Each structure stands twice: as C-alpha cells, then as structure tokens.
Amino acid sequence: MNDAQPVRPGYTVVGAGAIGGTLAFALARAGHPVTVVDTDRAHVDAIRTRGLVVARGGIRESVPVTATTPDEFTGTLDRVLLAVKAQATGTALDWIAPRLAPDGYVVSLQNGFNESLIAERLGAARTVAAFVNIFADVIEPGVILDGGAGALVIGEPDGGPVSPRVRDLVAHLHSWGPAVASDNVEGYLWAKAGFGAMLAATALADAPMADLIDRHRPAMAALTGEIFAVSDRLGVTLEAFDAFEPHPFRRGADPAVQDAAFDRLTAWLRTQTKDRSGIWRDLAVRHRPVEAPTHYTEVFDHAAREGLPTPLLRSVVTGLRQLEGAAQDMSESRLDELDRLAEPPAPSLPPDAEQADAVRQWLDAHREDMVADLAAYTSQGSASDDLDALKSCLGWLRDWLDRRLGAPDTEETLSREAAGDILVRRYSARDTTTRDHRPVLLLGHYDTVWPTGTLDTWPFLRDGDHISGPGVFDMKAGLVQAVWALRALDALDLPRPACTVMLNGDEETGSLASRDAIVEEARDSRLAMVFEAAADGAIKTARKGVGLFTVTVTGVEAHAGLDPTAGASAVDELAHQILRLTDLRAPDAGTSLNVGVVEGGTRSNVTAGHAVARIDIRVATAAEQKRLEDALAAVRPVDPRTRVEVTGGWNRPVFERTEGVAALAGLARRCAALLGHDLPEASVGGASDGNFVVAQGTPVLDGIGAVGSGAHARSENTSVRGMVTRAALAATVLTALAQE
After folding, report:
1. For residue 687, what are the contacts with CB-CB under 8 A and spacing of at least 6?
2. Which pLDDT belongs to residue 57?
3. Which residues contact 353 (CB under 8 A, 6 or more apart)?
4. What is the pLDDT of residues 37-61, one digit of tens each?
5. In the beta sheet, which residues pair with residue 709?
6. What percentage of the chain has pLDDT greater than the value 70?
7. Tell me: the pLDDT tens digits for 682-708?
8. Tens digits of per-residue pLDDT, 239-250?
9. What is the Cα 602 distance to its own chain's centre?
10. Mean pLDDT of 256-270
C-alpha cells in the first residue's frame, strides 16, 4: 500500500497584491509549491517572516510560501500567474521572458486587456487568458483582506477551445473557489470593462461603491453603454458574472429591466466586505498612479477605429488622473457632472434677436476690414510642403491675432520637424451662465495645397462680392471669419465661452504630425467648431472616413519573348487584384474605391517582376470601414507564384452624425434663423480634422467657414457677403453656448 501523496505542480505568482496574493494563498494552502515575486521589499520581508496572511472578518490565517524580489529570484519559470498592475505588464514581461521555460506559460490574472501584449512578447502558445473579479486588498505588508466571493474564468486566447492545461489550472484553482474554464474569456473581459468602469467612477468620490452607483445610475448606465457599444461593434458575446448582468446596461435597454439590474448589483455589492474599489485605495491610501487609464487603452483604440464616441469614459479617466496625488479633491460633484454629461444633449437656446442683429450689423460695418485681412493673409504663401513658408505664415498669424484679439491668456507653439508647427491660443470666458465650463475648440489649418510661387501668377483678386486667390476658400476666409466673430463679441460686450484657437500646418497632407495633438486638445473641450469651407452654404454633419492603401505585387522576371512561360507577371496579377478590389465598391452604402496610380514592370520584353497600385477608399459608416478592412486583409494572389502585399491604413476615421453633432447643427440652424436665413446641412465625401474629433467623442460643428466653391482648383473663390454672414453665424452660436 502506497500512502505517498501525489506531487502537486508548483506556481510562480508575479505580483503578490490583492489578486496574486489571494490565489497564491489558496494554491499554497492546497499543497502546491508557490513562489511569489514582488517588487515591494516590505511585503516580501513580511511574507518571509510570517507567511502569506489572509484576513477574513476578525480571523487571520497564514500559509508558508517562498517570497522573493525580482532581483533575488533564481531559476526557471514554468507556470506563471501574472497579477501585476496593467501598466506594469511590459516591465514584468521583460523580466519573465528570459526566464520562462520553452513549454512554460503565463496566465494574465489582471484587470484590463493584457493578453495581446503577452502573446506579442512571449508567443500565443505561452499565453493563457483569464478573467478575474476578486474583491481583495493588501491592508498591510504580507496581509491580504479577503473581500468576499468573486469570479474566475480561464481559457485559451482568442476563443480557442478549452485545453488540457486550462482544465488542470482550473482544477487547481478550485482551492480558491468557483473557477471555471471557458472558450469565451473575451466576453467576460468586455463585460468586466463595463462593470469596472462603474467601479472606477466611484473612485472619483469618497463613499461606498454601492451607494455611489445607486445614486448615479444615469452616469453608470451611460458609461457601460459606451463600452458595450464598442464590444457589440466587435461582435463580442458578453458574459454575466457574479451579480453583474451586462445586457441590461447596453444602450437601448428597457429602463425597468435596467433598474432591476441596478437593484440586484447594488444589493450584492453591499454584502461585500470591501466597500471601496482598489482604484480608490491606490489614490487615497497608497498615493500611487492608478491603472484604469491602461485598462481602457484598448477600448479607446477600438472606439476610435469604429467611430464610436466615449465622452463619459474619457471624463472618468481624466478625473482619476487629476486625483493622482490630490486625493483630497475627491468629490461626489464629479459624479454629478457625469450624470449631466450622460443626459441627452439638450438644445441650446439661441440668443435673442436683438443680440443676433447687433452682431450682424457690427460685422457688416466691418466687412472691408475683413476683406483687407483676407487679402493680407492670402498674400502669405503656405504650401504644405514648404516649411519656410509655413513658418513665415504662422509668424504673420501670431502678429495678426495679437492685433485683432489682443494677447491670449496662454499660448503654445507645438513644434513639428517635418510639418508646419501647431499654434494653440486660449481665451477666457466672459459673462457665461453655462454649466459646462470646458472651452470651445476653434479648429483650423493654415496650410494650402498651392505650391510656393502660385501667388506670382494668381494673386488675391476682389471683384465686387467675388474674391479669388489660392486658399481663400480652403480655408483662409474661414479663419478670418472665426477671428472676426470673436472680435464682434468683444466689441459688443456679449457673453462668450472660453475658446481655444488651434491652427495646424499639415491638414492638406493628412494631419499626420498634428492628429495626436488635435485629439488631445479635443478631449478636454466641450465641442469643436471647424472652420472648413461650407458645402454650397451647408454645414457638414457627416464626412466619410478615408483610407489610403498600397497594393504591391512581386512577380518573377523572365524574357517575355524567349521564355514566356517562365515568369510570373506582377502586372497581370495586379490587374486581377484591381478587378477584385473594384467589386468592393458600394455606392448605395456611400463606399467608393479609386485606384488612382498604377506602376509596374521595367521593359516591354521583360515579364514584370514588380507592380504597385495606390488606392483611395472613402466610407460613410464604421461598418463599411470594417468590411473593407476585412476584405483587404483577405487579399491573396490569383497566381500562386506571385506575392501580394497590402499596406497603408485609415488616414481619417468616419465622421458620423452623432446626437451631439445633431444637437449642434440644430443650434446653428436656430441661430441662422435669427440672422434671417436658412442653414442646410450636408454629408460630404471629403474629410477634415473634424473626423478625428468626432471619433474620439467630442461633438463638432463643421463647415462653418467660407461660402464659395472651387477647393483645390484655380476657380477657388469666396463671397464677401458670405464672410459677413458666416462670421455672424459663428458669433451667434458662440454667444448662445455661453448662455446655455
């Protein structure tokens, strides 16, 4: 008779905090050899001295484990449970990679989406996905507070079938509690992203999580709705866990069903020992940076690609960053503000007719001053590819802005090496009654498509109401109008919101050097007014997304006459691919695909070894963008002897007519009516920097610039009367926003 106990496999837990410490304790108590690795020296020393301690109620229990810092660790890693903060994942992988056995693996027992980074660094075969919702806290070195029951799901990444290693791991983790195996860990992770956003929001105040969620249901529902809109677009099947049911928190859910789900969730939270989130503890107790911004990086990235706004989630992340090192500023008023942000956009009230008429008359009296400014501005060449001209033009603009608006409250010049610099000027509010004190972003570009020297043969010309010249329509008149709108409000002492004027010098070449700065500025802005030219007088409430792709074919060269069958023609293959690609056009859905440039071959008697096509794609919806992405990713050669590669990407996301955009358009129409004219709206194929702004969640009023025609053509023109009308419209919208 053999009484020997079976040898239990060992585990290394990297990060022995709340999650890692809880699971390390359970595995060690069940007889598994456990080593915990943690960078906190005091935590490691306490575990070495007293063992790893878990506190439940008034009872503390200890188990012996091996504890070490990363620097002291020696040996090879086999089964690694990774439980560090999300923002520390990269550093932890740097340490793990050289020590991990060829058949070893890493389980991501972390908050957020970390599996893709682990797979990228270590390989998919050495990555195990996990969803963990454990209520625990480190309350002192070496001691973990057990906050109550939770959930734990293990599976292979990317929805792979449950494997033997996953089954073994789940069986071992039954020592903790109800761990389960699943082929849809992703569904749990996205569901937790919604639930976690609620918990993150509660860290903006110092009160129990359940109470804050209960009192701020509008904000909490809107938060989860933003996240689940992204998961729905990605085709993720959400999974319920603990007392959280994701489906009642999706957009459009029945209010009664949602309220019942809130009731169950908050009742369950009140049974938990832990009444504050780990994020709250990081801010209020540990005084260290929070990991929530890292948690939601993937959500923000997917949302931007899909053209889905996430204003509440961004507000939560911004608020948490503001509280780092300033926990004393925690306040439930921050959640009150989220509730207001979650409300459907309320129509702004336009100013009274007397104010609007005063603005119009004042600007009409200064129309010749506006024309003179446009003439002087047009005389400044600003070709996108001439850095010297752009620098000179921006210097002129700074001086002109000083003369017209006075010194700003603050000014920044964001330098760019291979493009025009970015000018950011901030002007304070005056006499506002609005509850939203974030600035309005006035966005424009000062570069043009016209090469240096164009002014020599085509200068600024005024003929009555008609003005022509390089850049007058796109978009120099628009900036003149924006500045004179602000000047009119100042001269008439009318209310205006805080305004940020932001000018970039590379819009005509795709805003590659300014996109990130524009998005960052827009995140902290209430809305954006983009002074791009109008579409036959209409504002632009939808724009297509733009994709710029290159198809490169590599063939096999041969003598076309002596050995015509020996080669594989890259030109022939490209012709096949072009015919296939043009089948992707969907005019009814607003999708166009243009093969604008084709190059290939070297000589007529040589089978072409190389061919290239450059493609412009325009899409009206995020769904069409996804369809085209998938189709381009699936491109394969017709002739197997050739190789086909598709490179490039989306230069601008889709600009969709969101609720916020529609509300702004409605305000602009009401203001136009006060000025005595109708204001149509249009959906256009061209893109602007407004695409970036809408995609990250900030409402946009676009096309409020020049009235005219001929963008990028020698017929480019604008109207003097239109300059006055549009400047008056911009001023009237701004004063309405100040009096909301």
Report:
1. 543, 544, 545, 546, 651, 652, 655
2. 79
3. 674
4. 999 999 999 999 999 999 987 899 9
5. 717
6. 98
7. 999 888 999 999 988 899 999 999 999
8. 998 899 999 999
9. 44
10. 94
Is the CB of residue 275 less than 8 Å from the CB of residue 137? no
Instruction: Pull the structure tokens for residue 71.
Output: 């620097």
Q: Token pair for residue 542?
A: 């939808």
Q: Which of 28, 12, 165, 25 is nearest to 96 (CA)?
A: 12
And the tokens for 196? Answer: 């976690």
Tokens of 46: 């306490």
Least-confidence region, from 124-138, 145-159, 373-387: 145-159
With CA atoms as reference, report the closest residue to 143 among 242, 40, 71, 277.
40
Using an 8 Å Cβ cutoff, are 642 and 649 in contact? no
Distances 170 to 163, 591, 623, 726 between C-alpha atoms, Å:
11, 47, 38, 65
Q: What gap in Å lies between CA 717 and CA 461, rounded to an integer?
A: 9
Question: pLDDT grade, residue 539 (50/70/90)?
Answer: very high
What is the phi-psi region of residue 159: left when phi exceeds 0, alpha when psi lies from -120 to 50, beta otherwise?
Answer: left
- Cα three-residue angle 209-18-105, rounded to 5 degrees: 130
- Please state, in angstroms and as integers, the Cα–Cα distance from residue 667 to each residue in 171, 664, 732, following that order: 60, 5, 10
Return the bridge partners of 420, or none. Answer: 505
Which has the minimum average pLDDT: 58-67, 140-149, 184-193, 612-621? 140-149
How many other β-carbons are positioned within 10 Å of the β-carbon of residue 221?
A: 24
> What pLDDT is stored for residue 1 in this prediction?
41
- Helix or strand or coil: residue 57? coil
Amino acid at site 329: D
- How far apart, in whole angstroms, are the C-alpha atoms of residue 449 and residue 385? 9
Phi, psi for residue 525 in degrees, rounded to 5? -110, 150
Query: With the CA atoms of 363, 367, 369 and 371 taken in that order, what torsion angle do they form, in degrees rounded to the nearest 10?
Result: 130
Write down the pLDDT at residue 461.
Answer: 97
Global confidence as pTM: 0.61
Q: For residue 733, what are its two tokens? A: 């919208």
Beta strands in 43-85 (DSSP E): 52-56, 59-63, 66-68, 77-82
107 contacts: CB under 8 Å, gap ≥ 6: 79, 80, 81, 82, 128, 129, 130, 154, 169
42 Cα distance to chain centroid: 38
- Rounded to whole angstroms, the Cα distance separating 493 from 591 reads 47
Q: 3-state DSSP call for residue 479?
A: helix
Query: Is the bond leading into 723 cis (omega within 30 degrees of zero)?
Result: no
How far is 219 from 391, CA to CA, in rounded Å?
Answer: 45
